[in-house]
Amino acid sequence: MRFPSLLLTCSLAALVAADGDDEFKNYNITNRPFPKGFRFGVATAAYQIEGAWNVDGKGPEVWDDFFHEKPSRSSDGTNGDVATDSYHLYKDDIRCMTEVGVDYSRFSIAWSRILPDGTADKINQKGVDYYINVFKELKAKGIRSFVTMYHWDIPSALQKQGGWLNPKVVDWFEAYAELCYKLFGEYVDSWVTINEPKQICHAGYGAGVFAPGVVSPGVGEYVCARHVLLAHAKAWRLWDEKYRPVFKTQNTIVVDSDWYEPKTYSKEDAEAAEIKRQFVYGMYMNPIIKGDWPEIMTKYVGELSRQQGFNQSRLPPFSEEEKKLIKGTYDYIALNHYTTYMVKARGTKSRSPPVSWEEDAQVDVYQKSTWKTAAIDWFKIVPWGFGKLLRWIKHTYGDVEIVISENGVSDTDRSGTLRDQHRIDYIKSYMSHMLDAIHDGGVNVVSYTLWSIIDNFEWTQGFNGKLGIYFVNQSDPSLPRIAKDSSKYYANVIKTKCLLDSCVEN
Ligand code: BGC
Fold first, then answer.
1. Which CATH number fits the domain that encloses residue 360?
2. Contact status, residue 107 vs residue 96, Cβ threshold 8 Å
3. Which residue, judged by its Cα, is nearest atom 9 of ligand 1?
4. Do residues 75 and 464 make contact, with C-beta atoms less than 8 angstroms apart?
5. pLDDT in tens, 203-248
6. From the CB of 486, is ligand 1 less than 6 Å away?
7. Which of 102, 110, 162, 440 sits at a 20 to 30 Å CA gap from 31?
8. Which domain holds residue 482?
């Protein structure tokens, strides 16, 4: 399970503190251009932008309930009831995209806007019309649609029956996905079934810090993960057999990962970092690419479960049939990436640690206080981690096409700014490491999606977490979108295919 990289052949001096900070100390932004045909996009998600939470027949979903029940769950007491009102102002968003010159828009469909009670028995035509209008407007402006069917917003009616913990969710999701294929297939250029299973399951059903707020560490989060993978697989297979031949488009799942860097290049830390990567990224990508949970997870969770007195592993196994169903359900890897963590091996391992996914990995994870940060604390800016993650994905899963489906940074100031030089620096340096991974590492990255086109409702950060390249003035009732400096920088990159003033082929 060890990551057999060059890292292990380093000198003794490097054992002390030789991580990416040292390796890339004198790093220069690359002046090599983007490969021909490389595409650029921007991303959003329904709950974060649409608003109109109960308008035109939309049913409630878990985030509506989460914030209505307890407004203090968001850092500024706000919620997504109005968000950026893109339900009414979507043309303004698309105008911003046109100004920037993006090739595509990644956005999500709110399940309960088209199926108010979650089931395909009752379709809300006004909700359907809204998305068709968005597709048409994008098409009219020459922007492709990259559509996510599920960005964390299960309808309340289904949550009342257990949500992602109920095995029936696999069929509920498949039926919803089929309806999406039928209703919107002709407009969609590329599909995503589900966004970031880790956040759905760990934050939503483990730690309980995201909707629906179920606290079931080390148990519920694994049940959720199993159901998410099966739901994705069934929806993907259905599309592959029945709808791919008709629409000739692609479909995949978005899995997010930070980079996990060993504290030192000692064998123990290198192994610890690899274990953490398997618990984070491998947990979802291993079943999809190789057909099962990562071996190390099966081993660790199985052993700990026994020691903790469970009569079976807390990590529910897949049957042989399920393994076959899940394996291979992707057309390309869609990766969301934002930041990096350091990983340190534990000297002595507890025989019975607290029951949780984090503890199951039995390693220590932290971020360096010297790393620059944005308004959201965990948002440490560590560009070299992006390049390392991309190379590791190629090393671990083979030469698969990769789409960066999200990358971006929050403002440093919670009240927002139009002069967002730090975001320009972030985009430039993250993309530079990505380009190095493409040119030097042979990693097949074909497109990059910036999160986000506009400042929007950043979940539990509320409007304190502003990640847009357009500022949305929340104190003006007309919610105007105003260009930040970064929108001009990104527009120039798209136009010139170069991160600097000029690029040279080499
Ligand atoms: C999510 C987005 C979120 C972004 C920034 C991603 O994990 O998909 O919904 O806004 O991170 O935190």
1. 3.20.20.80
2. no
3. 45
4. yes
5. 999 999 999 999 999 999 999 999 999 999 999 999 999 999 999 9
6. no
7. 102
8. 3-496
